[in-house]
Here is the input.
Amino acid sequence: MKKLLVVLGLSLFLGASASNMAQAYSTEGAMYYNEGLDQYSRGEYSKAIQSFKNAVAKDPDFVDAYYNMGALFEFLKSYNSAIAAYSKINQLDPNDSETIVKLAELYYKIGNYDRALFYVTKIKENDDYYGKARNLKNQIVVASQKQAAKSSLTNVNTANEVNRSVVDKFSGPTGLAMDSRGILYVASYTDNSIYKVLPNGQTQLFSKSPLLGGPIGLAFDSMDNLYVANYAKNNILKINKAGQIYTFMSKITNPYYLIIKGSNMYITEQGNNTVVRYKLY
Here is the structure.
């Protein structure tokens, strides 16, 4: 069972005792998990997140590690990353009401009211979380109505909706980039993969290398080499046109987004609150 710890205004869902974890998870996974708790207690949030990621890499069903990771991402206002962590728990246990309500709250925070309603309406009247879900649903409905009223007052060309299409089935989609041929590439944070979407909408797996760890930002250079901000492994990867992948730049703490302009590549380094400029050629 998850327990609630409140420290410095941050709520973390902590799992069972170390002895219980040893029975359910590997020794190495439990070690990373406990390391993450220690780092959190010292205020080393980026390191704690990385430790929880290491724990789930060793034990993909490590629910408490996903909860702590999600709570930290939410505290850092990285709501999409928090959603990815809680979504993994929802995949492991679709009936976990606590996770369902948390996903509704996060989608509400980012203004995705349709998705928030999708989750909050899953809570039934006989559920312990029903009262909380009902109050949240009222807030979502009011916010949605305000958004709709505001939209009705703006000059929106609704005909553009006819051209809208959706490509789904990604697990935690993050960064996007397009090569010179018009092929779209999508980073999938949760399953450490990169997909490409052809102009006809067909999706294909482009890369699922062991080198990939939490890919987020993507960018192409003038020769169609793809660069990847590898958040969880603190580096930048390069994938050439032939699909060969290797580490291009190390010691970049939690790289998030990157762009290439001319001969320069710019990288947001979330772990150090900096932007790195690198001259490619």
Q: What stands out?
A: The helical segments are 18-24, 27-41, 45-58, 63-75, 79-92, 97-109, 113-120, 130-152.
